[in-house]
């Protein structure tokens, strides 16, 4: 069974640009959550999608958005990039919203904003 | 803001020794989970303990949960160099279905 796939693995962008990250969950998993990881703030919850609907959102500005498609694949978008957006972005999937069995994480996308 | 605080922030031990990490959290939870992360890669789920459980074992891992103190501990017995990683607790908050991660403990196991 394939794991959670995140693309691209690495990305370098310039301030002011926008970026789209992709996450393909494990087959059959309908919940996808996104996290931002930085040395200073640790793992911060961005948002969760289930059945194409955003169910939860963390404390991030509106520049951070996402969506989920009917095949459960998810994308997150960051517009007007700032230097502080440099981070490892992690996607996690689970069978349902209750995370009763734990999340499966992808390897992440490392975004560098210059 | 993060839910959990972990202690210690860093831990260095020799192979064969036991490693204990502690996690404290702030609100009511459905369950508490522990994850391992190697070198800034994705997190790997280790073990989940529900709010009505007090102790759980999985191989060399032992997790305890004290909901009255809002704390949990992860014990790794007979540690190996391959256990070197960062370990995070994560809490599933009641009513939000949101998994919130702690600050993590960096474990270094020397051969």
What does this structure look like?
The complex is a heterodimer of chains A (114) and B (111). Chain A is mainly β and 114 residues long. Chain A is built from no helices and eleven strands. Chain A starts with a strand and ends with a strand. Chain B is mainly β and 111 residues long. In chain B, strands 2, 4, 5, 9, 10 and 11 form a six-stranded mixed β-sheet that branches. In chain B, strands 1-3-8-7-6 form a five-stranded antiparallel β-sheet, with no helix packed on it. In chain B, strand 7 and strand 8 form a beta hairpin. Chain B is globular. The model of chain B has no long low-confidence stretch (mean pLDDT 93). At the A-B interface, strand 4, strand 5, strand 9 and strand 10 of A face strand 4, strand 5 and strand 10 of B.
What kind of sheet is the major sheet of chain B? 6 strands, mixed
Query: How would the global form of chain B be characterised?
Result: globular
Element pattern of chain B in H and E: EEEEEEEEEEE
**Oligomeric organization of the protein chains:** heterodimer
Beta fraction of chain A: over 45%
Structural class of chain A: mainly beta
Shape of chain A: globular
> What is the tally of helical segments of chain A?
0
Helix content of chain A: under 10%
Q: Please identify the structural class of chain B as seen in this structure.
A: mainly beta
Number of helices of chain B: 0
Q: List unreliable stretches of 5+ residues of chain B.
A: none
What is the overall pLDDT average of chain A?
93
Q: Care to count the β-strands of chain B?
A: 11
**Distance from first to last alpha carbon of chain A:** 37 Å
How far the N terminus sits from the C terminus of chain B, by CA atoms, comes to: 36 Å
Query: What is the ordering of alpha helices and beta strands of chain A?
Result: EEEEEEEEEEE
